[in-house]
Design brief:
- The structure holds three protein chains of three kinds.
- By secondary structure, chain A is mainly alpha-helical.
- Chain A has 13 helices and two strands.
- Chain B is mostly helical.
- Chain B has helices at residues 3-32, 40-58, 61-85, 90-109, 135-139, 143-161, 163-173, 175-180, 185-211, 223-233, 238-261, 267-287.
- In chain B, helix 2 (40-58) crosses helix 9 (185-211).
- Chain B is globular, with a radius of gyration of 20 Å.
- The N and C termini of chain B lie far apart (67 Å).
- Chain C is of the alpha/beta class.
- Among the domains of chain C are: 253-344 and 431-524, P-loop containing nucleotide triphosphate hydrolases (Rossmann fold), CATH 3.40.50.300; 351-430, no CATH class.
- Helices cover 33% and strands 22% of the residues of chain C.
- In chain C, strands 13, 16, 19, 20, 21, 22 and 23 form a seven-stranded mixed beta sheet that branches.
- The radius of gyration of chain C is 25 Å and the shape is globular.
- The chains are: A mainly alpha, B mainly alpha, C alpha/beta.
- Chains in contact: A-B, A-C, B-C.
- The interface between A and B is large, with 51 and 54 residues.
Chain lengths: 358, 308, 536
């Protein structure tokens, strides 16, 4: 038997928009079967996973809080992936951003007087640290031709270990009874809440602004055009006079900066101190989000919300239905596989040729 | 340092190197056919979970190892269908496979956290295994170690001494030309991906059946990624995979020993050594690559769709 | 050597060795072959003639088992056979020499040959058989050399040896001389004549009519997927064969100017560049000057430095000295492609898809690609999409680009239409200097005529034009003077009226140029093999 791919003459925009939806439904279907095999009624699981999180104010806030870093990181990654650059180290850039910004907060802890500069300084420090950390794989690629895939990933482990060391060592709260964590940040070093008495903080707005900005830059600017050409036809990009080197550095800077900003926003927003770990794998989940959103900022926003819903739902399912948390991760991996497969179907007609080899 | 201490250090190095050797050899074959599968970590961790579960249920290390390899094959089949069958992006598909594998391993392993079983038995040849200084190293390892070394010889022989190996290398060099000769490009690529999966799964099951005979979530701890780096480091040659893996195994052992001896360095720095060493190796490799023919399979990472 | 029947037996057997009857091949709505009949007899060289897109490649792939026909049968000595894959074709005695060699560059000669040999063949045995065959036909090969280190002629030798080792009854050759020097082509003709005399059948696909008239006794002519005629090429003239192929009178191109009155607009001064890669050619002290109103043609066989020269002219690869490239007197060697465009230069690379245009992007986006620095297409870093669409529309109208939809992806256009678009895109800017690499490669005759006319018209308006082309007919049609690029070395330009195709052809083969092969000159290896030395 042989699988034949026949290129489609025209790509239907409708099919392109529907293919992730179809992939999502298929994943839900397979997930339902898996849940049933684990001895839970699929209907009940569906409610817990996808309906309940959307029906209460606190869980809606949680969704927004989870979706914000995902959308912010994935939007940055979209620039890299569009340019055919494979930064898979956003997790490390996130961690370094949180660490650098958190260090500013700890260094200024307890300072009196004019403190309004502290929060902006933290955000800038976090962003810059993310950029600087992303420059390592970018420069190695540009100058020496080292594959950015492996270097960016290896640096994730290094960043995590660095944070672990700092939180347990130099930045530990001396009065903290040896708990591996820093002092709690001052009020001036925290992102303000959007609503009094709730958990929703200003980091969500940062993510929204980033998505709007990225839509404009990627879709309408010459730089965005250059990024897309470089990814689709590198030789044509050279012919257009777009410097591959500059584009590589810029794309890595954008994705690293976005991840670093997301990192410090998480630390200054939700956590409020430095701990040995600050990320539940946002940097990796954002890769799924980026592809699920088909590398377009608005699609990424929608995808981030979907993933956030399943994550919140997964936590609830663990408590209510005793379903393992890894089910959520497996679901997300499956979803990405299906989205990638469905994407091919919009570009090719697939035909099965029975009886033929190859 | 006595001869036996040296031997024990070498034994630890070899056991640390074995999972890297097995996984990297599988990936090497896939990459020689032109397919870059970044999902090694996912296949490996799934192999570790399923391998341990199967061994606990059946009581057989062999069946556990086979189940581990099967787990890798299963995930590799998904990857092969996506990238070879549907020409989907290899990088993205590999990442998806990693996430899927981590999730599935958690599901399968959930019931086995905290359980222990006897490690895979060591070879014992009366007389030989007890030779002072070398007996334990040469004749007293577990089966995985010998399988790994045998695999290196086998892969080398296959790639350079058989017609099928020649076809596989040709496909990795120029799939269009090979297809024009009527050779089965996608079939061979698919099989190469499956072989890579089997090796990754087997390497994972080594971790949970022999290296640390228990299951812990995400216990591969980035070894799959190091195996990937190792293939590049070895410039796609099986013998160099063994050498490189031994080097990396040595770094791991050094880290453990140094921690035990508490050199006053932070433990985190030592834990980061293998990752930093990988980056350094990649840099050195690219510095040394300035002349000579093309080392990497020329079509690595490029998808292939046969057309008119 | 040949099969047992020999030429005598074949002459008695009234059934053709191979036949194809009523062959139809459709790709979706497109019909590549439409009820094609073809008979090939033992002991003949049969020509298959036709323009690009006439359906030659499709028919040949069906005969080699790479494609299965939608309808129709293939017969072998009168009996229907099914060619499911090339292996089946090879078992029936069909061999094929590809135009774009199907060789793996990083494998050795022997490995490439072993790919199609029977299982379990020992290396030593194979090497002996390669040597024996080489001795018989004068096709010498070094089995352990990697293919990337070989010249085009040597690569073709591998393809032929690979076929002959399988004892083929039918050998299909697809444009076999397109990459050969005249000397190499002569050697090939000797081998082909000998194979024919042994009683084998040869299917010879070419658009070089002189060769066909010299080699072939029968020809089948395809046009638009159909057989439009059969003839004895020896009894035809090149002109009558061309008329059969093209089917319509091609618009005559007004002859180009041979002299010019303008000042010098483009100058290369001792431009030398190292070879950028293993498979590339370096440039060696290239000097030329080009005045306004002048068209300079650069002839040469592919792989002699054309791509490198184009990149050095466009600025995709900067020159070592600023003064090595001068645009209207301004030193431009260090400038990038956009800075050169701002000086009034424009460029059209050889490869349409992926170099001159991004196939997945719309035509209006492809206008931005090369014009963003020279046309008002951006404001504050943002793209003015309406302006880009308007500019694309003007190009499409001026050059009669046929397309489907308002602003389709460049990749959906046919070769000729996309080429008209990318050339039109540059000419619309009224460049003072235009550099074109292979302006009509793989383009249908009507589009080619339009493109050539546009080049002549631009020159008449005072621009300096540099045309790099492998097609001598084209150069003699448009260029005022012609120079030859061989092994990275450019011969002095001579006026078109002062030279002949034969003289230029000799230079293309290296006569008069430096006595080293192209790849060897680039990598600095000592040369022990000369292509012509192997001739019997």
């Amino acid at each position: 038997m042989r699988l034949d791919l026949v290129p489609r003459d025209r790509r239907s925009p409708l099919a392109a928009a529907l293919s992730p939806v179809l992939a999502f439904l298929t994943a839900v279907l397979i997930g339902g079967v898996a849940v049933a095999m684990l001895g839970v009624a699929p209907g009940a699981a569906f409610t817990v996973y996808f309906v309940a999180p959307l029906s209460e104010l606190w869980s809606l806030q949680e969704i927004a809080l989870k979706a914000a870093p995902l959308a912010l990181i994935a939007t940055g990654l979209a620039f890299c992936y569009r340019a055919n650059l494979w930064n898979i180290g956003a997790e490390g850039q996130f961690v370094v951003g949180g660490l650098a910004g958190g260090w500013v907060a700890i260094a200024t802890h307890g300072s009196a007087g004019f403190t309004a500069w502290i929060l902006p300084a933290m955000l800038i420090a976090g962003t810059c640290a993310g950029i600087a950390y992303a420059m390592i794989p970018a420069l190695l690629r540009v100058r020496l031709g080292v594959s950015e895939i492996l270097t960016s990933l290896m640096l994730v482990y290094v960043a995590e270990l660095l944070l672990d060391y700092m939180a347990r060592g130099p930045l530990r709260d001396p009065a903290g009874f040896n708990f591996p964590q820093s002092v709690g940040f001052d009020e001036a070093a925290r992102l303000p809440y959007l609503m009094e008495g709730d958990t929703l903080h200003a980091g969500v707005l940062v993510a929204l602004v980033a998505v709007v900005l990225a839509t404009l830059v990627l879709g309408r600017s010459l730089f965005g055009f250059a990024t897309r050409v470089a990814g689709a036809s590198p030789r044509a990009a050279r012919f257009a006079g777009f410097s591959e080197e500059r584009l590589t550095l810029a794309a890595f800077a954008i994705s690293g900066g976005a991840a670093g900003l997301a990192g410090i926003a998480e630390v200054a927003g939700r956590i409020g101190q430095l701990q040995p770990t600050i990320s539940p794998g946002y940097g990796f989940t954002a890769i799924i989000v980026a592809f699920l959103g088909r590398l377009s900022p608005l699609g990424i926003l929608a995808a981030a919300l979907v993933i956030a819903v399943t994550t919140i739902g997964g936590e609830a399912a663990q408590i209510d239905l005793r379903l393992p948390l890894d089910l959520t991760r497996a679901f997300q991996g499956l979803l990405l596989c299906l989205v990638l497969g469905a994407d091919v179907l919009t570009r090719f007609k697939v035909r099965l040729v029975p009886g033929a080899a190859r | 340092m006595s001869l036996d201490t040296v031997q024990m250090v070498l034994v630890t190095v070899l056991t640390a190197a074995t999972p890297l050797i097995i996984a990297a050899l599988g990936e090497l074959v896939a990459e020689r056919a032109g397919v870059l599968n970044l999902g090694v970590e996912g296949m490996m961790v799934f192999g570790a979970a399923l391998g341990f579960a199967a061994a606990m249920e059946t009581g057989s290390t062999l069946l556990g190892a086979l189940a581990g390899a099967g787990a890798g094959i299963g995930l590799a089949a998904v990857f092969g269908l996506l990238t070879v069958g549907l020409a989907a992006n290899q990088v993205a598909s590999g990442l998806a496979l990693t996430i899927l594998g981590l999730g599935l391993s958690g599901l399968v392993g959930a019931g086995y956290v905290g359980l222990k079983r006897e490690p895979a038995p060591l070879l014992h040849v009366p007389g030989l295994s007890d030779l002072p200084g070398v007996g334990r190293l040469l004749f007293g390892e577990d089966a995985f170690v010998y399988v790994g070394l045998g695999l290196a010889v086998g892969v080398s022989w296959f790639l350079w001494r058989t017609r099928a190996g020649l076809i596989l290398r040709a496909i990795g060099d120029d799939p269009v030309a090979t297809h024009a000769l009527g050779l089965p490009v996608r079939g061979v690529r698919f099989l190469a991906v499956l072989f890579g999966g089997a090796c990754a799964g087997l390497a994972g099951s080594y971790l949970s059946l022999a290296y640390t005979p228990f299951w812990a979530p995400a216990m591969t701890a980035g070894r799959g990624w190091i195996a990937l780096a190792l293939v590049v480091f070895a410039s796609w040659r099986p013998a160099r995979v063994v050498a490189g893996a031994t080097l990396f195994g040595g770094a791991t052992v050094l880290q453990l020993h140094a921690q035990a001896a508490s050199l006053g360095l932070p433990g985190q720095l030592l834990s980061a050594l293998p990752y930093l060493a990988t980056i350094l190796a990649l840099v050195l490799l690219s510095l040394g690559r300035r002349q000579g023919g093309s080392l990497a399979p020329a079509a690595l990472g490029r998808d292939f769709t046969p057309h008119r | 050597m040949a099969d047992g029947t020999g030429s005598g037996a074949a002459a008695v057997d009234p059934r053709p060795l191979f036949g194809a009857y009523g062959i139809v091949k459709r790709f979706g709505s497109f019909t590549a072959n439409d009820r094609v009949d073809l008979e090939i007899r033992a002991g003949e060289i049969h020509a298959l003639l036709g323009e690009n897109g006439a359906g030659k490649s499709t028919l040949m792939k069906i005969l080699y088992g790479l494609l299965e026909p939608t309808e129709g049968v293939v017969t072998h000595r009168g009996e229907a056979v099914r060619l499911r894959n090339p292996e089946a074709a090879r078992r029936l005695g069909i061999g094929m020499v590809f135009q774009h060699f199907s060789l793996c560059e990083n494998l050795t000669v022997a490995e490439n040959i072993a790919l199609v040999m029977e299982r379990g063949l020992r290396r030593g045995t194979l090497a002996e058989r390669i040597a024996a065959l080489g001795a018989t036909y004068g096709l010498h090969l070094e089995p352990d050399r990697p293919v990337w280190s070989l010249s085009a002629g040597e690569r073709q030798r591998i393809e032929i040896v690979r076929c002959l080792l399988q004892e083929p009854k039918l050998l299909i050759l697809d444009e076999p001389t397109s990459v050969l020097t005249p000397g190499e082509a002569e050697l090939l003709f000797t081998v082909l004549e000998r194979l024919r005399a042994e009683g084998r059948a040869l299917l010879y696909i070419s658009h070089r009519l002189e060769e066909v008239r010299r080699l072939c006794a029968r020809a089948t002519i395809l046009r638009g997927g159909r057989v439009v005629g059969a003839c004895d090429p020896r009894a035809e003239s090149a002109a009558s064969l061309a008329a059969l192929m093209v089917g319509e009178q091609v618009r005559e191109v007004a002859p180009g100017p041979t002299t010019s009155g303008g000042g010098e607009r483009l100058r290369l001064e001792q431009l030398s560049l190292p070879a950028p890669g293993l498979h590339a050619t370096g440039l060696r002290a290239i000097t030329l000057g080009l005045r306004g109103g002048e068209i300079l043609g650069i002839a040469g066989i592919a792989g002699n430095g054309q791509a490198e020269l184009f990149a050095a002219l466009s600025g995709e690869v900067p020159a070592p000295q600023a003064g090595a490239v001068r645009i209207d007197g301004t030193p431009a060697g260090h400038l990038g492609v956009n800075a050169r465009r701002r000086l009034g230069a424009a460029f059209v690379p050889e490869e349409r898809n992926g170099h001159a245009a991004a196939p997945g992007m719309s035509l209006s986006e492809n206008v931005i690609l090369s014009r963003h620095a020279t046309a008002p297409l951006t404001r504050f870093g943002l793209v003015r999409r309406a302006a880009a669409r308007a500019l694309a529309g003007r190009v499409i109208e001026a050059f009669d680009v046929r397309k489907a939809g308002a602003d389709p992806a460049a990749g959906t256009l046919s070769g000729g239409n996309l080429q008209k678009f990318v050339i039109g895109r540059e000419i619309q800017a009224e460049p003072g200097i235009l550099v074109v690499d292979q302006p009509t490669w793989g383009v249908d005759a009507a589009a080619a005529a339009r493109i050539r006319q546009a080049l002549l018209d631009l020159a008449a308006r005072g621009s300096a034009i540099l045309v790099i082309s492998q097609d001598l007919d084209e150069l003699f049609e448009v260029a005022g003077s012609i120079a030859v690029l061989h092994a990275g070395h450019l011969s002095p330009a001579v006026p078109r009226t002062g030279t002949t195709r034969e003289a230029v052809g000799l230079l293309m083969g290296g006569a008069g140029g430096p006595p080293v092969a192209a790849d060897a000159a680039a990598s600095g290896r000592a040369v022990t093999r000369s292509e012509i030395a192997h001739a019997p």
